[in-house]
Amino acid sequence: MPRTALITDADGIAGVALLKHLLDSTSKDEWTRIVVNTRSKTHGKTNDNRIHFIDLDFSRRPGTLIEHMTGPCASITHAFFCSYVHKESFEELNKANAELFENFLLALTATASALENVTLLSSSKYYGSHISPVPTPCREDDVRRGDPADNFYHAQEDFLTMLQMNQTWTWNVIRPEPIVSAAVVPGEFNIALTLAMYFMMTEHVVEEARMPTNERCWNGIAAFSDAKLLAEFCVWAAINDDCAQQAFNFSNGDHLVWRFVWPLLADQFGAYSTPDQIFQKPEPVRGMLQQEFSLVEWASDKKAIWDRVCEETGILEARESFSSASWSELDSMFQRSWSVNVSVNKARKFGWTGIKDSFDCFVDAFEALRQENVLP
């Protein structure tokens, strides 16, 4: 049965990957139409006539959205919600993103008469592990922790399951670990770009590429999600009848230990780092936030250095990448004194076999960023 997809944010990291997967890895017999919500002109470069572009603002009320979605979205069978809005305060962030999804889902269900599945791209932050330590590995049926008002992923999922009751369409929730991608999206966590810039600048000034973290995080584990593999998984779950009404964790299927992988990542750019990094601050108590130094502060006077790196390599357009670096997001990750890991056993039990070496994931992203002249 031919399908029609809706990707709600093809300008974001996950949306870019989903669109590329559907274009590159599926046929017109499988997906006859791909409705893409975007404000970007770059997607128009493709000559695939399956794409239909729309520009929707899901912060608007459902009634207004229905007016714009009635025609373009009538044939939607599978919707992938990847949208996110950033706010500085926790209260505003949670309220805005809960409403964003509610507006979208109410408008979609009122206009998409052929709807079969809604996939909500959530996050491993669902477990509250970005706020404080939680039992790991996190499992899909874990008891919720923390104040619900501090976690909009709970509100989004509750609204999805409530609205689906007694309906013929199904739902999926995907909770990925941090996504590694070569897509550079202002306001999103561009981890590969930011690490690459840090290593390139420390190499340029002949400075040790120290990891701006604490001793517990340095010796702890981390897991990541390759954007391409995540897109493949989202589509796999959405069209697999056995996966209906299920939430799934997602990661590459392995984990890294920072003290061993950090020097390997630095070496990709000729920067010096050692697994025997010396920490000036005492090892923190688990649950504390601590860093040897802040990347935000470190990067505050580094624009001229980045410009020199780009000029010496002749890739002048890469100078603009400095404004897309995610220094504060890396600070938030590296200041934790606890490790975060999710179990992907449930996905395995349902038949998922995909895996990606997380070190290769970063190396591939670095290479793609270079090919696009985002990095010099």
TrEMBL record:
Residues 6-295 form the PRISE-like Rossmann-fold domain. InterPro entries: NAD(P)-bd_dom_sf, PRISE-like_Rossmann-fold. It comes from the Eukaryota. This is 3-oxo-Delta(4,5)-steroid 5-beta-reductase. It comes from Cercospora beticola.
